[in-house]
Amino acid sequence: MHDLIARADAWLAEDPDPDTRAELAGLIDAGDEKELAARFAGTLQFGTAGLRGELGAGPMRMNRSVVIRAAAGLAAYLKKNGTPHGGTGAGLVVIGYDARHKSADFARDTAAVMTGAGLRAAVLPRPLPTPVLAFAIRHLGAVAGVEVTASHNPPRDNGYKVYLGDGSQIVPPADAGIAAEIAAITSLNDVPRPEEGWEILDDAVLDAYLARTDAVLADGSPRTARTVYTAMHGVGKDVLLAAFARAGFPEPVLVAEQAEPDPDFPTVAFPNPEEPGAMDLAFARARATDPDLVIANDPDADRCAVAVKDGGEWRMLRGDEVGALLAAHLVGRGARGTFAESIVSSSLLGRIAEQAGLPYEETLTGFKWIARVDGLRYGYEEALGYCVDPEGVRDKDGITAALLITELASRLKEEGRTLLDLLDDLAVEHGLHATDQLSVRVQDLSLIADAMRRLREQPPSRLAGLTITRAEDLTKGTETLPPTDGLRYTLDGARVIVRPSGTEPKLKCYLEVVVPVPDRAALPAARTRAKDLLAAVKRDLSAAAGI
């Protein structure tokens, strides 16, 4: 306890934030050994997702002290490595932020550290979608970019996402290089942080992003689909409305209760469109206004969720369904280039690309990998992430994805058809590709490690009565994939991926079954078969993993 108090006192002496200073002082005065131990058990690790964690005092929480160290480490890395990753703007680092608690403070601290290190810093004019920051990096010729966001995490979290000058998120070995520079910082007193000297950007960069969205849509395409839109208490509303107005779509009907930024996310348990209940208000608005589709962004607007009327009820489309719809739409428009997805996404994209004679690639999970595919034309990930304009934004972009899916809905509307009709076409053409996820959130991270070890030591031979024809431990890598902590099982007509989440305390299992569909009359039976198979795979995998 004496050593713990000494470390806490040393941290307190350097902490520049009166909020976390008061919090930590209270814990020290109360002698709260359990809470102090949790906060000083190590340091929040900088990796390929940058930083993400719960707000609070101490090195295991997100706070100004941790962010200042991260910024100083990034600055040192950039100065040491020059501009091998792109960028022409003489050491410019552009910084964006969302509307979460402390985001503006973290952005300002980052700008001060970059300026103190002799680099140039420019901060976006206000809280804006992450895709605007990703666009701004290449548009301004920056050597790097930082986005302060925790995306769709709970209100208590925040994060720090780093991009290099190519406009893509960092990947190894850059993450390890930055982490080493962060670890080399001994004291915050050694990090110069001037009070001024950085630039606050005006709306010109946002105007340029909006102008770039013109490239997403086809000239003369129908623009008639009507939408209900929710920003999920995030920063997407103003940019999406501006993009839709520019494109000539009908003005989206807003979910008023979720339209404005609110870091407490009062109407949802988790501000993620995929979470149960998160779309309830949007569906209520849709029932009252009868639009053609419902669109949701997550709080930093890099993801896009889509819901449609199925019979008399509204339902969310799975990310894999939207991914396939956008791919089919782009193929129909004559798109050329490589189609790519992560290994946890549906194999249907590969079949669509193959039939169209287009190159196709699989990558590890995350847009940091998808965005780096050579000749990329379209990339998506099942977690509602879509890159539909890689020349503009080399990352997932919930604004341009919303534009493209609304264009597709408009075209189908003109034909008297819907997104569901197109999904039926794809199922008949390529087989019904049905996906699901077994996701387990834990308090104790050792439970995830135990499940992965159990599967490695006692791998299942069958799931849902289907024989596992191939089992791969992805920690060893493959011919086309670098090593990652994951397991992949190939079955006769099914596929399973198991991996720990990179951004949340979750074990994620991605399931896919493929059921042949001879004609449209066979679709109901195929859906029933797929649903039963997925349920059985989920049950058997859960038992095998002990979760």
How would you sum up this structure, described in words?
With 547 residues, this protein is α/β, with parallel strands linked by helices. It is built from 17 helices and 21 strands. The protein has helices at 2-14, 18-30, 33-39, 64-81, 103-116, 130-139, 174-183, 204-212, 237-247, 280-289, 319-332, 348-356, 367-370, 398-414, 419-430, 446-457, 523-545; strands at residues 51-54, 92-97, 120-123, 144-148, 157-164, 199-200, 227-230, 253-254, 293-297, 304-310, 313-316, 338-342, 360-363, 376-381, 385-387, 432-441, 462-463, 466-473, 487-491, 494-500, 506-515. The longest helix is centred in the C-terminal third of the chain and has 23 residues, at 523-545.
Features:
alpha/beta, six-stranded mixed β-sheet, six-stranded antiparallel β-sheet, 21 strands
Outline type: globular
Helix content: 25-40%
Strand content: 15-25%
The rounded distance between the terminal residues' Cα atoms is: 35 Å
Strand order of the largest sheet: 1-5-4-2-3-6
Topology:
Elements (H helix, E strand, L loop, with lengths): L1 H13 L3 H13 L2 H7 L11 E4 L9 H18 L10 E6 L5 H14 L3 E4 L6 H10 L4 E5 L8 E8 L9 H10 L15 E2 L3 H9 L14 E4 L6 H11 L5 E2 L25 H10 L3 E5 L6 E7 L2 E4 L2 H14 L5 E5 L5 H9 L3 E4 L3 H4 L5 E6 L3 E3 L10 H17 L4 H12 L1 E10 L4 H12 L4 E2 L2 E8 L13 E5 L2 E7 L5 E10 L7 H23 L2
Parallel strand pairs: 2-3, 2-4, 3-6, 7-8, 7-9, 12-13, 12-14
Antiparallel strand pairs: 1-5, 4-5, 9-10, 10-11, 14-15, 16-21, 17-18, 18-19, 19-20, 20-21
Characterize this entry briefly.
The protein is α/β, with parallel strands linked by helices. The protein is 38% helix and 20% strand.
